[in-house]
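TL;DR need structure tokens for one chain.
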Amino acid sequence: MEQKFPPKWTSSVISPRSASVNRSASFTNSHHTYTTSPLLRRPISGYYLPSLGGSTTSLNNCSSSNNINATNNSSAVSRLIETFNNERKGLIEEFSKAIDVLKINEINDLDSQINSISELEKEMDEIRQQKNEKENECEEYRSQIDSLQCELRYLSEPAEVINELQAELIQLKMENKDYREKQSILACTTCMDQPVSFSPMT
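>> reply
TL;DR here they are.
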């Protein structure tokens, strides 16, 4: 009785970018020699060949399955792209609404606060100016207070005040005496410089 061996499927990728894979079935005949059917080679598919006979009907069925799979894959990709686009459009619409809400509420509120701050800065400048004026007035009052305190200390000791006034009076008298002496000397010098005129006797 002839011994049969089950087919052995092997796959080899042509290249990394290749879109197809060569599949072949090998088995032994009655002489125990391997034979290979070229009809068993086909592109990538999710299905194995239903038989090893290599009939045209089987290949056509496989080709139809490949076409169906390609169509299904294309439809799935299209649906995925459509879903992706719809999600992005929804996000754009949502973000646009968020921008409008922020612009209407928070941004306008911040603008109002900025305007309020500008007005407050003007008021602060006016307050600073008033503060400087008040500080100048305080300096004037301090100067007057110092002067008054000096007068109070001066008047709080009458004897010392009297002595100082007497000393000032003596000084003034001496200066007045010197001035008078200088004036009299100047007057005498002026008289001596004038020529003497004699009137004729009649």
